[in-house]
Amino acid sequence: MDSKQIKQAEDRYLADTYARYDVALVSGSGVRAVDADGREYIDFTSGIGVNSLGFCDTGWVAAVSRQAGKLQHTSNLFYTEPCTRAAEKLIGHTGLCNVFFGNSGAEANEGAIKAARKYSHTKYGDGRAEIITLEGSFHGRTIATITATGQDSYHKDFDPFLQGFAYARANDVDDIRGKVSDRTCAIMIEFVQGEGGVIELNSEFVDEITKVCAERDILLIADEVQTGIGRTGKFMSYEHYGVTPDLVTVAKGIGSGLPIGAIVFGEKTKDVFGRGDHGSTYGGNPVACAGADYVLSRIDEGFLAHVAEVGAHFRERLLAMKGVAGVSGKGLMLGVALSDKKAAEVVKHCAANGLLILTAKDRVRLLPPLTITKEEADEGLNILEAAL
Ligand SMILES: Cc1ncc(COP(=O)(O)O)c(C=O)c1O
Prior knowledge:
Elements lengths: L2 H11 L11 E5 L2 E4 L4 E4 L2 H4 L8 H11 L12 H14 L3 E5 L2 H20 L5 E5 L8 H6 L16 E4 L4 H7 L4 E6 L2 E2 L5 E2 L2 H14 L2 E5 L23 E4 L10 E5 L20 H13 L2 H19 L4 E7 L2 E6 L4 H10 L2 E2 L1 E3 L2 E4 L7 H14 L1
Parallel strand pairs: 3-15, 5-6, 5-7, 7-10, 10-11
Antiparallel strand pairs: 1-2, 2-3, 4-12, 8-9, 11-12, 13-14, 14-17, 16-17
Helix pairs in contact: 3-9, 4-9, 10-12
This protein binds pyridoxal-5'-phosphate.
């Protein structure tokens, strides 16, 4: 099929839920993708922060192909090796206690919400099940996670919502202090809000949250779905703040292209789920876990230093561009505030000229593969500069 045929078939057979770019991709390698008409693109999107090793990394392809040819799925009635290997590495990287595998970020957040509520019910009884999230946050598309998401635009037409959520302003110490009450069981945050515009939490705000959590035995849930697994130049973004959450959710980059998510439990929460409390038919799928195990085996100090170094290069070049009002984010998760152009127009212009980029609110958002070199970065940045 050429691009036109793919688009026509999509219009006919798929529910119209996505505002897609005018591009139909068919293959890729590293930071480069090719469309159905043979045009090449530099990719600064990573499938929205998923393809951490770029397109079709040879080691990752070998790991998932080997597993697909050996045992593709068993259900969780049986023990399998790949999920134990991936979990062992996640624990090795985080120093946390144990792992539950699911299939997506929303599902990981749903599970963390359940775990926080069970922890509180078991220890304190009824009436203490409220989760505080932040305005501008994004936690997923299920009913529980759109309720958790502190943005009205995701709520329209989908009420009634789940009870037991409250919203505080990001980086407003007094507001979060005022929202915490005897009903609060957890505070759930992204340390860098992704969909909300690449907004970083400041240290004073995070310190206040950790203080109030410690004082009142409130659990801290870190949504690391977009920020985790090396994206910000640390294995998890909470490491930039020197805190240890009680529940951490990951997805996106851990799979580098296959659907997988996980809840990582800390000391307080490691035994909160008992048998039958939570589950997923596909969770811990051997092929997805073989891919995750491979991704996790690639991440070490050198890998993270590369992310930080190339991220600093992006930032330096962006700040020197005409039309850039500011750069937010950490590592290779960058938000670019524009002084005159609209982000959506810049995205369109870049795609027409061979560069794929994202938006987050009114900013341009860049989430390139974590393996991108400075030379590849410059190739794409030159196209962005011309567009601006
Ligand atoms: C911070 C955060 N949490 C949760 C999600 C939802 O993840 P998924 O789309 O895999 O359900 C996203 C997706 O963008 C996200 O950025």
